[in-house]
Structures are given as C-alpha cells and as structure tokens.
Amino acid sequence: MLPVIESFGVCKSYGTTRALDNISFTVNESEIFGFIGPDGAGKTTLFRIITTLLLPDEGTIKVLGLNCTTGYKELRKNIGYMPGRFSLYQDLSVEENLNFYATVFGTTVEENYDLISDIYSHIEPFKKRLAGKLSGGMKQKLALSCALIHKPKILVLDEPTTGVDAVSRAEFWQMLEKLKSHNITIIVSTPYMDEAMRCDKVALIQNGRILAINTPDKIREGFTRKLFTVKAMDKFKLITTLRKYPETITAWPFGDSVHLTLNGDNTDDSLLIFLRNEGITDPVIEEIAAGIEDRFLELMEKGSKG
Amino acid sequence: MFGNNYMNDKVIYVHNLVKKFGNFVANDNLNFEVYRGEIFGFLGANGAGKTTAIRILSGLSRPTSGEVIVAGFDAYKQAEMIKKNIGYMCQKFSLYEDLTVKENIMLYGGIYGMKLALIKKRVHELLERLNFQEYENRIISDLPLGLRQKLAFSVAVLHEPKIVFLDEPTGGVDPITRRQFWEMIYETAAGGITVFVTTHYMDEAEYCDRISIMSEGRIVALDTPAALKKMYEAETVEEVFIKIARPALA
After folding, report:
1. Does the predicted TM-score (pTM) go above 0.90?
2. pLDDT surpassing 90 at residue A45
C-alpha cells in the first residue's frame, strides 16, 4: 500500500482564526478517503493546501512523494480538482469547457476519453448547451469530467454533492467507485454522513481538528454506549419528554425516531412508565447498532466539553 | 403533530397551477393544500420545478394559470400582501453580513412593519431563547454557519407570520446544529405557524407531517412519510425518492 498523500502536523490560520490545527493523516493509493465535517471545519482549507493553492503555516504535506510547497509545478499536472462551487465557465458550452481543460493540461479529449466516458455520456447529448444552463447534477458530471480529462493520479473533490438531490448523489458515488479500478486515489469532503460509509477511510473533522480517523465501520464501533431508538406518533412531544427523563444522557432526532442513550445503558420498565405518564401511550423502543452519525455526534459533544 | 382544530384552516391553496417560461413548462398542473401548523416538506430533484413554485407561493412571481391562494391572499392580485404575511429564509441570502446580530433583528422588524417597542421586546426574547446574549453586538460574518442559520430562522418568524418558507435551511451545517434547528421548527409549528421547507437531507423529510415530491414539473407523490414508505415498500424516504424522482435530463 503506497502512501500518496502524507500530512504531518499541518496548521493554518486566517488572522486569529485557527482553520487547521495539527492535521496529520495518510492516504494510500486507490483509496477513497473521506473528510466528514460541517461547514467551517477546515475541509476546504486543507484541500487547497493539498492542491498546492495555499501554503500551510506549519507542518508539511507530501503528495506523490513531493512536498506541496516546493513540488507544486509537477504536482499540478497530476491532480484533478473539483472545488466547492461550480467553477467552470458558465458561458462556454459543455464541450468547450471539456476541450479547454484538456488543452490547459496539454492533452486532448480523445486521449483519455475512456476514463470519463461513463460520466460524460450522461451529458454528451447536451454538449452544445452552455454550462450555466445545466441542472445541478449535470454541472457536477461536467466538473468531474473536466477534473479527470488529464488522467490525474489524485482526484480532490470538495463537497461535490452539496445541494444536489438524492438521486444524483447516488449516481455520483457510483461513478466514483468505478474510478478506483483506474488506480486513481480520491479524497472527498462531504457534510453527508451516509456518504462516509462509502469511503475506504474517513477522517471526522471539526473546528480544524481531526476527531477520529479510521475505516467507517471502526469509527461506528467506537461508540461508547448502548444505543436505543424510540418511536411514537408525536415526535416533538417524544423528544421533549425523553429529555425530561432523568436517566437520559442524549436524545437526538433521527428521521422518524429518536436515538437515545441512557445512564446505566439500560431500558427497564421505568422508561416506559415515565413515557406513559407523560401521555405517550405507544412508544416502540429497540436497541440498535450505532451509525457513523451517532459516533460523530458523540465525538462532537465530547469535543465541545473539553 | 398539528392539532385537529388546525386541520380546516388552509394557509396554502394551489389548484391547477401552471407556470411556463416560453415553451418550457416548469410547473405542470400542481394541486395541493397546506394547513395551519403543518410542517410540509417540499422535495424534488434539482430542476424539478420546486424553486419556481416557491417563488410563486412567496409572492415573487405570478402563475401562468391556475389558482394560488397564500395566507388568504391571491397570488395574482395580492402578491404584496402575501409578502407581508410570510417569512422566508434561503441559503443564498438571509442576514446582512456586515451588520451585527441586534442590527439585523431591528432592521427586519422595521421591514416587517412592527412597532419599535415590540421589536425591542422580541430582540430581548430572541437573544435569550437562542442563548445569544454574548453575540448581540457581533457582526454576522464573524459567526459560524450554524448560529447564523438559527438566527436567520428566528428573524424569518420575528413578525409571527402565518407561514414561513425555508429553502434548504440546513445545508452544510453540523449534525448537532441541524437537529437543534429542526427542534426550533417543531416548536414554531406547534405554535401555529406553518413551515414549508425544502431539503436535500432525506432524513429531514421524515420530520415533516406531510411531504410532496416533484419530478419534471409535476407532483408525483404527496402524503405522510409513513404512508409513502408503505406505498412504495421502502424503509426510508430516501428509498421512496430514488424510486420515483428522476433527475432532470439536463
């Protein structure tokens, strides 16, 4: 397993704001490595350093064995970057954008077409349309095609699915998985926890710090308590009632149920009795395995306490 | 859930709504009603026509044909009255970045036509409820996204409108803040304000009383999350969505 990205103690500040604080990690060849964290966590700053667009204040990042700070000319030929906002030329057509990027990287569309054909085939029927007139999902596919057209060794995707609907998101991840077979290493950031499960390795990041790095399953398994789901008809009343229960540690809404942790990890009858007394007559309580979002919530809470 | 005495109070009435841009039909015969105190999720793939419909409902654009009545006002002739009686929060713009928290609240209170004494009272209540007292004189651009979103929502309902429209209010926000935000939505709806929300987080769709799913200009599903999951034999709203909402062809 060859490391293609190695970060050693990277720090970056904007004025008094510490955007990145002692960031260290390794990404191996052909991995899909995810950075999961909310807005302001530092993901974009980190990606700009990796793609040689920003210098770190402290620490080093090596990409393909080269130092990001000194080896940037060579590195830029080998990285494909899809930044957070659609950044292609809105007033050029789909095919004009693709040709432009191919030319800038000293290649042609034909040269590496096989790499992008699966992706590009979705938008090829609209190749004369101006990029600015495409829907969100289609813009993504174009941006991805342009990032791949020079057959980079590493693909850096900054929140490629933010603001995109669930169907397009699912399609996008299917496309990424296919790229692995071309030995392309992918680092991707996302605020969607379910996308974390599709990565080989994940780093949870918040306020410039890494809270955990591991495979998604190992992160999930790090959850320290028993987890219960509770369902009832009146969701809001259920949450407020559970929060009043003296043994509750955390009660978070999760879609159609509430995820609950308790002192002593135990749901004896007293919880049911408490709920019934408060007017919740038909709660359904089950123990479940923690998901990655449960673990992230747990780490965030611990992080904010100290 | 919303109380039974709200059920007959329609705050949004849409009947055969059509909106065309030239030959392109963005909204193709939409029919739905939303009741007081409901949390109504308005879902759909990008390009399905949601934004077009929301702009009509919030008085920003006129229908091509069909009936649209919002907060009791007609969308063709009384759009200005609609605007005065709704709240609106969208991702691209909500608060003035170079004003402080307090200045924003005061400004919006003035725009909504509230009396000064009431605005001052609400400033105080709002800051206390959100635990924002220390941020009163901080510039918005200095605050993290999660706090801004919570504040923007509170400002959108400052004047206690009948309906508040939320356009992807939790995009990119951390999972804790996202949940706190939804609890604010629950509280608001329990107080009788209707919440009309669009989101790409499918788990958030589950928090809604009813959801509609748009695809290619039409509504292809409208019901409670539980009923839709049963109808489409799905475990989650995401599965339902993937089954019936197709992404725009371009």
Report:
1. no
2. yes
